[in-house]
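>> received
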Amino acid sequence: MSGYPPVSPPPELPEEFRFLCMLHNVGATRAERGLTVEEIAKWTNKELSELQEYLVKLQKLGYIQSFNKEGFDRYYVSVTGIRKVLTLYS
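>> returned
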């Protein structure tokens, strides 16, 4: 016995927050680095309908922002979203 209390595993994150972390980790953290849903699907290997649900929920929470460029919506992690991701790592 080491004398240290047992360490419990971190709580499982909801899938949309894992998704938020992935966007942060691939660098989609400002408008110039925004990704389309199709690009996000390639990174995550998720269905477009599932991604749309995550994006809508995360936008309502203020963690994701979007804009339209050349007829395509692009998404990136907002400052609030970056802060959320950083709290998940600490």
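>> The chain has one domain: 15-89.
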